[in-house]
Structures are given as structure tokens and as C-alpha cells.
Structure prediction request, 207 residues.
Amino acid sequence: MLVKICGLNTAATLDAALAGGASHVGFVFFPPSPRNLDFDTAAQLAARVPDHVARVGVFVDPDDLLLERAAPLLDVIQLHKATPARAAAIRAKLGKNVWAAVAVKTRGDLDAAPGFVGAVDRLLYDAKTPEDAALPGGMGLRFDWSLLAGFRHPLPWALSGGLDPDNVADAIARTRTALVDVSSGVESAPGVKDMDKIARFLKAAQS
Ligand SMILES: O=C(O)c1ccccc1NCC(=O)[C@H](O)[C@H](O)COP(=O)(O)O
Prediction:
């Protein structure tokens, strides 16, 4: 089972994710987020990550300058609110693995998925946040997992949105996902990761 712990912003909580067996760790580059990292902190955290764990940078419609500064620290570029054309251009320019978030509330939202074929390496199905929400992700919102039933996934994919230590095993059993992603569900407050919850989440996902 692959598990991404997202929004890590301290060495202690990053180490908890690594110790628990996370396959991916997420670093947020989006100033409105309580999990946003400056480049110095991101570099310090990225240096702690062993080669077998993927460092995922989370971006919302990023400009080229931000991507160029952050990319050397990262293995994967995760894009929110990106068109397939922009995602493909970023992938071609940086030569990195690129993921696109697909915001899901209704079955119709999944229609966006095939458009990313040839543009990205993986889709991240995440809960759609309200139009006026401060963030397009990391809000602890969940979508109806049954929307994925029978869907022909055009690319490798991950499940995200509102997962926590108590529901992740059920989410995996119902969706048969190979990769789960969590942020709020392993926090004690927005932007404050909880080492015990990280450990519990990883254990539950791997069980
Ligand atoms: O986490 C953030 O602050 C964030 C900000 C802007 C865009 C995306 C963001 N997070 C993306 C993620 O990959 C989260 O892990 C994902 O949305 C799930 O979050 P949660 O529902 O809180 O577990």
C-alpha cells in the first residue's frame, strides 16, 4: 500500500511519517495554506527524505519561477487547478513525475480525468472544495467514494480527501485504491501535524 502524508512542515512530523513507512511525503508551496513552506525549510525537510520515499510538491496554478525554485527539491509535482495543457508543459519542462488533482463532487467531475492522458503520470481524486474556500485541497472534505465504482481509470490514481486513521481502511477496501493521501486527518489543528495520528493512519492503511 502506498501512502502519502501531505503538508508536512516540521522535521519531527516528517520523521514520524518516514518511520511509519510513508511512500510519499508532501510539501505545500501555496502561501494561503497553513502548511505552506518557505524554500529554506523545504530544502531542510527534503534533505531528510531517503531515496526510496518520493518528495511531492503541492502547487496551485504555479508560475514558472516558483516551479523552477522548488523542483530541485522534489520527485513529483502535484498540480491543483491545472489544465492538461499546462500540466503537460510543466512535465516536459521539468522532466519530473507530474500528478493532477481532479476535484470530485459528482460523477460528472470524473469526466475531466481522460483529458490528462499523455499530460500527467497520476491522477489524485480529491474532494471538491466550495468555490469560496481558501484552499482547493487540505480541507478535510470527503467525496462519495461510490462515484468511483465502475469508473475506467485512464491513468494510475490516488484517493484523497477527508481520510483519517479511522476511515482509511474502509476507503481502501471500498475503492481498491493503491495509494491514499491525507493531510487534515493527521492533524490536531490546521497545519499542525500529529505524530500519533500519522502513525495510526499508516498502520491502518497498511493493515
Ligand atoms: O494541504 C493544503 O494546504 C493544500 C493547499 C492547496 C492545495 C492543496 C493542498 N493539499 C493537497 C493535498 O494533497 C491534500 O493532502 C489533500 O487535499 C487531502 O487533504 P485532506 O482532506 O485535508 O486530507
In short: DSSP finds six helices and ten strands in the chain. The chain has one domain: 2-206.
